[in-house]
C-alpha cells in the first residue's frame, strides 16, 4: 500500500497528560489544565465515527469483493444507483439529493442518541425548507425510508419507525449558527454532491468545534481507493478493482488515522515530506466553477511543479493529502463566493494533525469561529510545512500578476 503510515491505534490521552504541579493547584491555569485533560473527545469521536461508518456502508460503490461484506457490496451498489437518480435543485441552483438529506438526518439523529448528556448544536449544510412544501412530499417519503432503513438495526436506541416529522426535525437540528463559544458540530452530509452524482469522489465530513477551534474531525470517503491516487492515476474510481472506502479521523494533538471498511486497525498517516517543488503534485477541484484553474496553474508554474493537477471532488482532497498522495491543495473560488465552514472543518484538522498546514491565501489560519462562513483572504492553500513558505510566495506573486492584468 503506497501510504505513508505507521500501524497502531491512538493512545488514551489521559495516560500521557502530566500531573498538575502543586503550585498550579487551585489557580485559574490549573482549572484550564484540568479542563483540557478532561477533554479527550473519545465519546464524541466514537459517535462521529459510528455515524460516518453507517453512511459509508450505505453509500460506497464497491469493496473489492470481500466475501464477508458481499451482502453490503450488492445492496450498496443498488442503493447508490437509486440515490444518484434522486436529484433536486436548491435555490442557488446547486444539486441536492435524497442522500444529502438522509445523511444529515442520520448523523443528527445518531449524535443526539449517542451523546444524550451534552447540549447539542449542529451547523449543517441542508435545511428542510423545500421538503416542507407540497412539491417536496414524495422526496420526504423517500428520505424517511432511507433513514429508517439505515437505523433499522439500532435496537439500543429503542425507537419506533421514524415519521416524516421526526426526519424533518433531525434535518433542522442543523440550523445552529456556530460561533466562538461552546461546542458545535459541523456537518457536510455529502460534500462534493456533483462528484457523488458523477460516480467520482465525495465525502461525509463531520467536525466538532470547541470555543471556535476544530478539535475533532471525521472524513468518510466511500469512493476513495485505499491505494494512493497520485498524479498519474486519474481513473474513474467506479471502475477500479482496488479496494475503496477510507475513513480519516483526527483529534487535536493526537494525529490523523485512516481506516478501511474491512474492520482492520486504523493506520496513522502523515503528509508528504517533499521539499523540492519540482517533485510535488497538486490537487484542485474537479469543477472549474468552484476554483480558478488558471490561477492554480500559474502558481504551480511559478513554484516549479512539473506534474499536472489532480482534479478531484470534495474534501477527499484533504484526506488524500493527509496520507501523502499529493503535496499541495489549491482552492481559489470565483469572486464573490463565500466559503462555508462545513466544506473545510473536518478536512483541515485531518491535514493539520497529519503534519500539514492549512491557510488562506494571505497565510492566515482558517477561522472557524465566525459562524457558518469562513472569513478569508482570496483562497485556501494546503501543503506540508516545508513547502508552505515558497508556496505562499508563488501565491502572492500570481495573485498580484492577475490583479495587475485586469
Ligand atoms: N461557486 C463556488 N465556488 C466555490 N465553491 C463552491 C461553489 N459552489 C459550490 N461550492 C462548494 O464546493 C463544494 C464542493 O467542493 P469541491 O469543488 O472541492 O468538490 C460544494 O460542496 P457540496 O457538494 O457539499 O455542496 C459547495 O459547498
Ligand atoms: Mg451542496
Ligand atoms: Mg460541501
Ligand atoms: Mg454537501
Question: How are the elements arranged and paired?
Answer:
Layout: E1 5-7, H1 13-16, H2 28-38, H3 42-59, H4 70-84, E2 87-89, E3 95-97, H5 98-114, E4 122-124, H6 137-151, H7 164-172, E5 183-191, H8 193-198, E6 203-210, E7 213-225, E8 244-251, E9 256-260, E10 267-269, E11 282-284, H9 293-303, E12 310-311, H10 316-322, E13 328-331, H11 345-352, E14 356-360, E15 380-384, H12 388-404
Parallel strand pairs: 4-5, 11-12, 11-13
Antiparallel strand pairs: 1-10, 2-3, 5-6, 6-7, 7-8, 8-9, 9-10, 13-15, 14-15
The protein binds adenosine-3'-5'-diphosphate and magnesium ion (3 copies).
One magnesium ion (MG) is lined by residues 100, 125, 188-191, 193.
Helix content: 25-40%
| Oligomeric state, counting identical vs distinct chains | single chain
The low-confidence runs, each spanning 5 or more residues with pLDDT under 50, are 1-37, 61-74, 232-240
Quick one: CATH superfamily? Answer: Fructose-1,6-Bisphosphatase, subunit A, domain 1
Provide the CATH architecture: 2-Layer Sandwich
Count of runs of 4 or more consecutive helical residues: 12
The CATH topology is given as Fructose-1,6-Bisphosphatase, Chain A, domain 1
Content-based structural category: alpha+beta
CATH top level is: Alpha Beta
Rounded to the nearest angstrom, the distance between the terminal CA atoms is 46 Å
Rg estimate, integer Å? 21 Å
Strand content is 15-25%
Name the hetero compounds present.
adenosine-3'-5'-diphosphate, magnesium ion
SSE run: EHHHHEEHEHHEHEEEEEEHEHEHEEH
Output mean pLDDT.
86
Largest beta sheet: what is the strand line-up? 1-10-9-8-7-6-5-4
Integer count of domains: 1
- Overall form: globular
Cofactor: Mg(2+)
Protein name: 3(2),5-bisphosphate nucleotidase HAL
GO molecular function, one term: metal ion binding
Keywords: Hydrolase, Magnesium, Metal-binding, Multifunctional enzyme
Amino acid at each position: 500500500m503506497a501510504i505513508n503510515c505507521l500501524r497502531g491505534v491512538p493512545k488514551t490521552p489521559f495516560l500521557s497528560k502530566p500531573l498538575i504541579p502543586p503550585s498550579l493547584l487551585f489557580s485559574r491555569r490549573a482549572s484550564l489544565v484540568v479542563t483540557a485533560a478532561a477533554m479527550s473527545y473519545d465519546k464524541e469521536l466514537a459517535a462521529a465515527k459510528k455515524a460516518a461508518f453507517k453512511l459509508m456502508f450505505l453509500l460506497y460503490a464497491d469493496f473489492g469483493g470481500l466475501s464477508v461484506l458481499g451482502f453490503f457490496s450488492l445492496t450498496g451498489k443498488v442503493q447508490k444507483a437509486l440515490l444518484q437518480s434522486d436529484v433536486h435543485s436548491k435555490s442557488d441552483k446547486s444539486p441536492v439529493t435524497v442522500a444529502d438529506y438522509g445523511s444529515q438526518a442520520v448523523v443528527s439523529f445518531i449524535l443526539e442518541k449517542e451523546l444524550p448528556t451534552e447540549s447539542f448544536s449542529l451547523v449543517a449544510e441542508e435545511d428542510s425548507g423545500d421538503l416542507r412544501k407540497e412539491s417536496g412530499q414524495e422526496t420526504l417519503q423517500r428520505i424517511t425510508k432511507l433513514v429508517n432503513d439505515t437505523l433499522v438495526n439500532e435496537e439500543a436506541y429503542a425507537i419506533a419507525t421514524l415519521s416524516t416529522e421526526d426526519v424533518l426535525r433531525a434535518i433542522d437540528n442543523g440550523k445552529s449558527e456556530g460561533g466562538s463559544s461552546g461546542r458545535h458540530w459541523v456537518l457536510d452530509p455529502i460534500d462534493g454532491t456533483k462528484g457523488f452524482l458523477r460516480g467520482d469522489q465525495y465525502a461525509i465530513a463531520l467536525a466538532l468545534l470547541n470555543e471556535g477551534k476544530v478539535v475533532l474531525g471525521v472524513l468518510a470517503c466511500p469512493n476513495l481507493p485505499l491505494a494512493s491516487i497520485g498524479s498519474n492515476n486519474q481513473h474513474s474510481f467506479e471502475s477500479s478493482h482496488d479496494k475503496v472506502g477510507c475513513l480519516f479521523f483526527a483529534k487535536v494533538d493526537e494525529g490523523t488515522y485512516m481506516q478501511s471498511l474491512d474492520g482492520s486497525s486504523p493506520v496513522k498517516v502523515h503528509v508528504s515530506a517533499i521539499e523540492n517543488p519540482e517533485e510535488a503534485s497538486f490537487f484542485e477541484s474537479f469543477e472549474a466553477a468552484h476554483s480558478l484553474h488558471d490561477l492554480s496553474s500559474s502558481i504551480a508554474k511559478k513554484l516549479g511543479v512539473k506534474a499536472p493537477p489532480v482534479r478531484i471532488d470534495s474534501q477527499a482532497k484533504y484526506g488524500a493529502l493527509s496520507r501523502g498522495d499529493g503535496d499541495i491543495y489549491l482552492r481559489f473560488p470565483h469572486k464573490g463566493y463565500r466559503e462555508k465552514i462545513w466544506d473545510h472543518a473536518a478536512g483541515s484538522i485531518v491535514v493539520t494533525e497529519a503534519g500539514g498546514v492549512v491557510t488562506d491565501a494571505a497565510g492566515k489560519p482558517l477561522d472557524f469561529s465566525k459562524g457558518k462562513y469562513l472569513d478569508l483572504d482570496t483562497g485556501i492553500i494546503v501543503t506540508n510545512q516545508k513547502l508552505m513558505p515558497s508556496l505562499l510566495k508563488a501565491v502572492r506573486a500570481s495573485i498580484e500578476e492577475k490583479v495587475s492584468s485586469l
